[in-house]
Amino acid sequence: GGTNPIGTYTSFGTITNNGQITVKDGVAMTGVNGSSLINTNNINITSSTGTSTGMGIVGLSRRTTSLGTPDTPENYGVDTGLMTSATKSIDISNSGNISATGANVIGIYAENNTDVIKTNTVVSNTGKITLGDNSTGIMVTNTKGNDTSKGVMLTLSGSGSSDIKVGNASIGIY
Predict the structure, then answer these.
(1) How far apart are CA 131 and CA 43, in angstroms?
(2) Which of 49, 52, 57, 62 is the most exposed, fewest CB within 10 Å of its CB?
(3) How far apart are CA 50 and CA 168, in angstroms?
């Protein structure tokens, strides 16, 4: 219940879905501040109206305010700035299935909203993403403008046959 519910959330932690997460008009998995989000089974985003806005997996370098801007840094995790080359500010891995029954859904969303270099901000998809109309399979973004050292590293592999399927007026990877 509730408006835009979150199925699971962590800051500087790990969430592994080996089962089933179903959310209605919400987000299945959210991680910020150096979190690792792993989906090996099923994520389902459902809609009561067919025009919901939902997301399967969301990773942010730093949590955001209600205005969408980076929040005050935490005093733990990657927000402290103590990172090595192996430390990830976002680490998303999907080898399972992400599906939605409604429109306007994002399967995987990763936002590097700090000064972390892109090799420390990673998304890997070897699974299946099946979404409806006006949706985006995978969206990665960098709020640091045109700085090419920032951003998100995206790795894709699969069968090459319908690994990411989206409906009308949709985008596979953005």
Answers:
(1) 11
(2) 49
(3) 14
β-partners of residue 21 are 43
> Per-residue b/e over 2-24, b at no fewer than 16 CB within 10 Å?
eeeeebbebbbeebebeeebebb
Beta-carbon contacts of 90 under 8 Å, excluding residues fewer than 6 positions away, are: 31, 34, 35, 59, 60, 61, 110, 111, 112, 121, 122, 123, 152
Quote the percentage of the chain above a pLDDT of 70.
94
Residue 117, judged by CB atoms within 10 A of its CB (0-12, 13-18, 19+), counts as middle
Q: What is the pTM of this model?
A: 0.92
Distance, in Å, from the CA atom of 16 to the CA atom of 29, rounded to the nearest integer, reads 9
The per-residue pLDDT for range 5-33, each reduced to its tens digit, is 899 999 999 999 999 999 998 999 999 99
CB 139 within 8 A of CB 108: yes
Three-state DSSP state, 80: helix
Query: How far apart (Å, rounded) are the C-alpha atoms in residues 162 and 150?
Result: 30
Which 3 state secondary structure label does DSSP give 118? helix
Q: Three-state SS for 120?
A: helix
Q: Are the CB atoms for 110 and 137 separated by under 8 Å?
A: no
